[in-house]
Amino acid sequence: MLVPPRTFTIGLGIDDELAGLDATAGDFDMRQADKVLNRSVLNEAVVAHWKERAGDRRTIFFCSTIAHAEAVAASFMAADVTAAVVMATCPPTTGPTSSPGSTAARSSCWSTAWC
Hints:
Layout: H1 15-19, E1 23-24, E2 27-28, H2 30-37, H3 40-54, E3 60-63, H4 66-78, E4 84-88, E5 110-114
Antiparallel strand pairs: 1-2, 3-5, 4-5
């Protein structure tokens, strides 16, 4: 590890919705998480909070799906902050929420937006 990571979280008022997500072996259904997390108002709140707390630092945001990462990056870019999406996809049967024959993992194994 080059440097110890610093982690920040913010309250977005969606704890009840997140608590209602289905989980298998401790992993959330990321398509359900995307429906809760990927909202313009929340993404814009994340940008505003980041500008206040970490606007002078390179930052990685872990997102629920590729679409969520793209929306978070777009929110940063709309606020004149350079941002990009980095992602890795998994075969349909090896993702964190998939079972044999499932297509759940096609959304992504992981996705991030960084600025």
